[in-house]
Amino acid sequence: MNYDKTEIPTTYDKARALAPETLRLWQNLLSVHIDRAEMSLVIDLGCGTGRFSEILAAQFGVQVIGIDPSLKMLDQARRKATIGNVVYWQGSAEALPLRDGCADLVFMSMVYHHLTDPTAVARECHRVLRHGGYTCIRNGTRETDFPHRHFFPALRALIDSDLPSRRDIDQPGRCSYRRNRLVRVYPTRMRKAASFPMFSYALRAFRDGDAAKVDELALAAFDQFRLQYSDWPAMASAIGRMSVLADTGEIIVAERDERIIGAVAYIAAGRPKAAYFDRSWPIIRMLVVDPASRGTGVGRALTEECMNRARRDGSRVIALHTSPIMTVALPMYLRMGFRLVQVAPPIYGVPYAVYLKHLGG
């Protein structure tokens, strides 16, 4: 959209104003992933009227350059500027007016769906970021359960055509963010009505200091099944060591307000795994979600992240191991396209089976 051919810039802030609690949420999420001590220059790419520019400057205490192609949007941003370490430049995301390796963070809020060439933008972010710098993408996706789509069916086609999928956002990063750190923050579904607060979280890699929290979360997630297993103490002992999966695979965690609310292990093809799996398959192990965070899309997002990693590794399938007692997880897997391929040995009297999904693309 060419905002300079519209009057949208003059009313943009009124229509898209963020409540103080929403701003605090995004600030907290950035703090979880980004070390303030590493910051010296932040780029607010697609800054528009500067909704986040001054927030970023205040949070990190550094110079912020807001870049946007629209002169009218930049004019609105400059009219409300109140602090000295924010400047606004006109520029294109595909050809940033910045020298190589000058920035520590490129922040994009609700910009991705406006990009005409996301891969070129990813290359530009890679170019202007120092080694180990951050790119943060805040954007709605097709997977976001916007409440409006349930009341206005015509919106569904618009959402599917105009918004990216999470996989779309990941793909440019495969080739262009290798030396940098990509932070993706997904707003997930809102429950029942628009009056409920948006549930937001971020996915990140497991750290050594997460082990005790992940093990505790796994036990909490499985506690509802304690009466199903004939030897719960033995089962709990195994579940409570989920963090050891980091030795053979990649653990991904979902984090909200500095608290781990979900976790899963991705085990790549060729890595050690149970005999009932084909060794050439990548697999998903131990998807667990905090009971208080169920129904928010966290489990699906973690599953999709494993699928993305399988695609990254060049695999055409991905498998998992689950039970019919998992009355939330199993239907979700089936909706996502997993299909039963073989029955597995029961675990302490509970039936299990192996499910496989073929990955498109």
Write up this protein.
With 361 residues, the chain is α/β, with parallel strands linked by helices. It has 2 domains: 3-198, Rossmann fold; 205-358, Aminopeptidase, CATH 3.40.630.30. The protein is built from 12 helices and 13 strands. The chain has helices at residues 8-16, 20-33, 53-60, 71-80, 118-128, 148-151, 154-162, 166-176, 211-222, 232-239, 298-312, 329-335; strands at 41-45, 63-68, 86-90, 103-109, 129-138, 181-187, 200-205, 250-256, 259-267, 283-289, 317-322, 339-347, 350-358. The two termini are 29 Å apart. 38% of the residues are buried. The model is unreliable at 173-179 and 186-198 (pLDDT under 50).
Write the layout of secondary structure elements.
Elements: H1 8-16, H2 20-33, E1 41-45, H3 53-60, E2 63-68, H4 71-80, E3 86-90, E4 103-109, H5 118-128, E5 129-138, H6 148-151, H7 154-162, H8 166-176, E6 181-187, E7 200-205, H9 211-222, H10 232-239, E8 250-256, E9 259-267, E10 283-289, H11 298-312, E11 317-322, H12 329-335, E12 339-347, E13 350-358
Helix pairs in contact: 5-8
Helix proportion: 25-40%
Strands across the major sheet, in which order? 3-2-1-4-5-6-7-8-9-10-11-13-12
Main beta sheet strand tally, sense and closure: 13 strands, mixed
Q: Identify the CATH class of the largest domain.
A: Alpha Beta
Which structural class do the helices and strands define? alpha/beta
Using DSSP, what is the number of strands?
A: 13
Report low-confidence residues grouped into runs of 5 or more: 173-179, 186-198
Whole-number tally of structural domains: 2
The helix/strand order is HHEHEHEEHEHHHEEHHEEEHEHEE
Shape: elongated
CATH fold naming of the largest domain: Rossmann fold
By DSSP (H or I, 4+ residues per run), the number of helices equals: 12
Ends apart, CA distance between termini? 29 Å
How much of the sequence lies in strands comes to 25-35%
Rg from alpha-carbon coordinates? 22 Å
Q: What is the CATH architecture descriptor of the largest domain? A: 3-Layer(aba) Sandwich
Instruction: Look at the structure and name the CATH superfamily of the largest domain.
Output: Vaccinia Virus protein VP39
Mean pLDDT: 85
